[in-house]
Specification:
Two copies of one chain form a homodimer.
Chain A lengths: L2 E6 L3 E7 L5 E8 L3 H13 L5 E6 L28 H9 L3 E5 H12 L8 E6 L3 E7 L2 E2 L33 H5 L1 H8 L11 H21 L3 E5 L8 H13 L6 H4 L6 E2 L7 H15 L1
Parallel strand pairs in A: 1-4, 4-5, 6-9, 9-10
Antiparallel strand pairs in A: 1-2, 2-3, 6-7, 7-8
Chain lengths: ~290, ~290
Amino acid sequence: MRLGALEAGGTKMVCAIGDEKGNIFERASFPTLTPEETMGGLIEFFKDKGIEALGIGSFGPLCLDKNAENFGDITTTPKLAWKDYPLRKAFVDALNIPVGIDTDVNAAALGEATYGAGQGIDSLVYYTIGTGVGGGALVDGVLVHGMVHPEMGHMLLRPDPRDPAPHGFCPYHDGCIEGMANGPAIEKRWGISAKELPEDHVAWDIEAEYLAQMCVNTIVTLSPKKIVLGGGVMHQMHLFPRIRKRTLELLNGYVAHPAILENIDDYIVPPGLGDNAGAVGSLLLAVQALND
Amino acid sequence: MRLGALEAGGTKMVCAIGDEKGNIFERASFPTLTPEETMGGLIEFFKDKGIEALGIGSFGPLCLDKNAENFGDITTTPKLAWKDYPLRKAFVDALNIPVGIDTDVNAAALGEATYGAGQGIDSLVYYTIGTGVGGGALVDGVLVHGMVHPEMGHMLLRPDPRDPAPHGFCPYHDGCIEGMANGPAIEKRWGISAKELPEDHVAWDIEAEYLAQMCVNTIVTLSPKKIVLGGGVMHQMHLFPRIRKRTLELLNGYVAHPAILENIDDYIVPPGLGDNAGAVGSLLLAVQALND
């Protein structure tokens, strides 16, 4: 089955053609400008590919209520050109095929739970830590939406006493994870790009502290069977052992499950699909749309 | 249909007889001693009541994996007499009827979503703030279990600069909500029972701050359609407007949904079933067990 996948991001739009097994045959990337400037190229890309359905993993906030008139629209984004843009409807109208849509991180969570690090797991949380921080969750095999959809990057955390900028840099929130631990926060805090910070710099201890707190709050709230940490910041693989160690210290034995106490190396993990988690998940959203 | 409900708590066991509509006909309370001392009276209470099924909302941690050998057992509790006690199995063996079990707070969440403050809502979080703090969640109509089950009371939060005990009093965690905001924490912090603190004491501002942070982290993680706050501390009704106001301030417009921005009075609410949420939810767990 040929399917389309769109990863709609704030800086680029990644289009892919693949199948229901998560294979990707072809890929193209377009800069995210205004809808008028961007949408034509995306539709052109998908138009003659013989795809049966399209899945979109998008930046948000999105309306994901299938019964709402604005289902599939981008809603109150600060990217003003895309505010209230009917992203899903534009593709339905242009391609005349089923189109599924979810948040980028929910798509990645679905991809990882199906073909990635959590194959066959019905309860998994996927975080991206990069320019922003976001989280998607699968609970009992269903992607969590609720009233809107999670915005896990804005979870409030305890400041690290070693942090020279304990309030973080989020324009909305004092001390949320995105403002304290995304890539730009590391750079603003130390005046040097994260990539240039040596591994033994205290910056990474603080980063691990915040990401471990994030894991702890995720464990006590959602009790997932696995936590997958992706995104550009997590390309720093030395963070994984630090985050695992600190998560164990912070939990302090409270959640007494062998998956945590004995196998944390297999509990907090990098994406099995690498940077393809979102694209593969979007293909699976296309499958869901076909079956809806 | 006659059903049994057991609210199994650390200090008392509340037994009730009711029906699938949440009506409660009869109730009795027993102190929680050891299983040997306590279980006989509970079984005796339920034995001749003509109930078709029993639902249990219990303190934890519990094994809630229906495929596990120890499904329905209390597991690693610090209440040592109950450690590894097969609570569900004891009632199955004694009463020979279907027995459902979940955490006390998941039971209350189910009760509130069915007959309480969130009637007909498929996504709701229920917190109890009392001697302990715990949270239960319904996502897409399903109670969240995941790997074990949530332990939301141990979510880490930012210390309030006005707090003379910003690390809280949890023996496990530095700065978790239970250790900072349960009833005993208020008493330890101020050296006076929470009930005797006047409404204009800064203690309540700090309490509202922590409970608002808890609501914020819940909103960004689970995006529930309603948050119900119950338990002894929430009998202080003046906390509700303070928590709502502070939740709005902390979110700072980030989750732009009318249920929050315009109707927060109807979004963060006391239990519609009052202190019966757990008993009614347990009756519904009995119904689920019948249908399983």
